[in-house]
């Protein structure tokens, strides 16, 4: 893959070989990537996909080392994943590396936007105080706002409740050329809805299959889906809630209802474990991100996005013939 598609970190080459410096994450590169498939056929008929893209149908979701990708068909036990993990990385190094990953994302986004053939959907889920807002701010800083939409999903409106549960999410999926960000997502309908008993058990249980079908529809229509679960420990949540109470500038973030929700910690962990296990598919795998350390979380997520975008290999459309010879009239 050409280096002009983005800057690489020292020691990190796209074919997995070691380059000019140590890559502390190199070892985990050997893991077989998950694949997302996009169907170019319908797009080719519409004539909107550059012919060169025909060979780029298998899109690997390249989880950065330190992230735990849930193997499709297996069960993830979240209590066995160390939320405190930092991959042995140095904090200052990771902050600098984050800046480089952001530059890669920004350069690749320009190509994705110009190509206008496919899209990228980033899904963020976490328990309260898990860091969704902070991650989105840190990782997507520098992205052209015209090429990005962020959708936050709250308690559904009565109009939304009058439709099937996926309706409001489908309406916000990114169009061609766009990066879409879901701050909470269709997974709320098997998480909070389950924990609070908002629908009968049989209803939320049937949703795993519908979610898998929905994500297959998206990926086969040209949307690459990366799903991040920000995994924090119960102690870390306590610290973050206390920090919000102690700091007047953070009061706006504090909702007394969070204290009530905290009592359901175990029920939420169970619901997350089930959702991640039931809905990790080869085309849209779940990625569990150790998230107690914000700097580690931000770096590995940014790198995953940059690497996956690079694997998509978005290309500028071919220029019209003879454009270089054109003269702009005085
Ligand atoms: P956030 O915590 O994401 O910053 P809010 O504090 O406004 O934003 O919380 C949004 C609330 O909406 C959460 O309590 C979440 O559980 C709830 N919510 C989101 N989706 C649904 C849903 N489908 N059904 C019920 N509640 C939902």
UniProtKB/TrEMBL annotation:
Residues 95-315 form the Polyphosphate kinase-2-related domain. The keyword Acyltransferase does not apply. The keyword Transmembrane helix does not apply. One of its GO terms (biological process) is ATP biosynthetic process. GO terms for molecular function: kinase activity; phosphotransferase activity, phosphate group as acceptor. Residues 1-33 are annotated as: Disordered. It catalyses: [phosphate](n) + ATP = [phosphate](n+1) + ADP. Residues 1-10 have a biased composition (Basic residues). InterPro entries: P-loop_NTPase (IPR027417), PPK2-rel_1 (IPR022300), PPK2-related (IPR022488). Keywords: ATP synthesis, Kinase, Transferase. This is PPK2 family polyphosphate:nucleotide phosphotransferase. It comes from Methylobacterium brachiatum.
């Amino acid at each position: 893959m050409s280096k002009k598609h983005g800057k690489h970190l020292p020691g990190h080459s796209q074919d997995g070989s070691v380059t000019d410096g140590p890559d502390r994450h190199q070892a985990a590169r050997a893991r077989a990537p998950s694949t997302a498939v996009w169907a170019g056929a319908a797009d080719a008929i519409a004539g909107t996909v550059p012919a060169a893209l025909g060979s780029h149908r298998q899109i690997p979701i390249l989880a950065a080392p330190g992230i735990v990708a849930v193997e499709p068909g297996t069960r993830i036990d979240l209590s066995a994943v160390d939320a405190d993990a930092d991959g042995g990385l140095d904090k200052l190094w990771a902050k600098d590396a984050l800046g480089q990953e952001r530059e890669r994302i920004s350069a690749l986004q320009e190509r994705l936007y110009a190509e206008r053939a496919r899209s990228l959907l980033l899904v963020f889920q976490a328990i309260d105080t898990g860091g969704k807002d902070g991650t989105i701010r840190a990782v997507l800083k520098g992205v052209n706002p015209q090429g990005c939409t962020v959708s936050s999903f709250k308690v559904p409106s009565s109009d939304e409740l009058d439709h099937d549960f996926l309706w409001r999410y489908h309406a916000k999926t990114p169009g061609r050329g766009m990066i879409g960000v879901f701050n909470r997502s269709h997974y709320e309908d098997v998480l909070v809805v389950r924990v609070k008993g908002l629908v009968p058990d049989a209803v939320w249980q049937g949703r795993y299959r519908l979610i898998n079908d929905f994500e297959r529809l998206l990926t086969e229509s040209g949307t690459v889906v990366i799903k991040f679960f920000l995994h924090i420990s119960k102690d870390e949540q306590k610290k973050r809630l206390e920090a919000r109470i102690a700091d007047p500038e953070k009061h706006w973030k504090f909702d007394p209802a969070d204290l009530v929700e905290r009592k359901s910690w175990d029920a939420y962990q169970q619901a997350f474990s089930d959702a991640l296990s039931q809905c990790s598919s080869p085309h849209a795998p779940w990625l569990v991100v150790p998230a107690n350390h914000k700097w580690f979380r931000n770096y590995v997520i940014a790198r995953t996005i940059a690497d996956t975008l690079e694997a998509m290999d978005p290309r500028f459309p071919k220029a019209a013939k003879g454009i270089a010879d054109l003269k702009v009239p005085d």
